[in-house]
Every structure is written in structure tokens, then in C-alpha cells.
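Side project, low priority. Logging it here so it doesn't get lost.
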Amino acid sequence: MKVTAVVVPVRPARSRSRRAAVQPGGNPTGSPTNATTYFDGIYTEGVIQNASTGKSLSECPNLAVAGPVTVRKGLAQLQVNNGRVNSTFQGYVSPDGTLAMKSEIGQTFQGRIDSNYVLKARTVGNCVYDAAWKRTSLGTSHF
């Protein structure tokens, strides 16, 4: 009697706890497989500078403060609700600290976290803003 075995490869189940929850409103920029948790934390004490050219202050107002950026499991998020815009930027932090995010309304965020945990970035949409934050806690977040 001849016995023939059939081998079916089984892919191990992926752990979902490795990734942070993506907020509604669009897909985050970057790759979760290339993300790092090294820069995880809450970045606050943001300063923001209006870098828009050719726009009036009524079109691109000066903003007093930049909201916090939260990085959890490599996924960075920034909620913007300044009375004119209500959106969420999302993206993954790469191992070298590079962070690219986009909002559900098409705005972009390009930045980098340095070895001192200072995040410097530029947001571009209808207006352009340069901002900087520093990591002030390793705390957990709501997402």
C-alpha cells in the first residue's frame, strides 16, 4: 500500500496587537512593517510658524499653538481642530525618524524626529506651516 501525504503550508496568525488603531478618515502614510516603536511617546509644547506666501492672514491665520503628536506602536497621529480645519494626520515613523503623514482632506506633513526626540515638520495644504515639538512623555494614548 502506497501512502501519499499532502502538505499544506499554514501561515501563522498575525498578531494584531502589534499595530496601533488607525483612525477614520484615511489610510496612514508609510508602512507598518517598516515602522519603529523607538520614537513612541507624546510630543507636546509645539511651536508653529506660518510659512505661507501670497496668502492673507484671513486665508492662512497665524496659529498660537501646535496640538500634540502621539506616536504609538510606530503610528503617529495629529488631530487638527482650529475652527477652520478639523482633520487627522496619520503616518508611520521609519527607523531613521522620518515621518510622513497625510490628512483625509489631502494635507501633507513631512518631518523627522531627531536623537533628542525633537520633531520638526512642515504641513502643506491650502496653507504652509512649520512646527516643532518635543517628546514630553512615553504615555499611552487613546488610540
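Brief comment: The radius of gyration is 19 Å.
Revisit when time allows.
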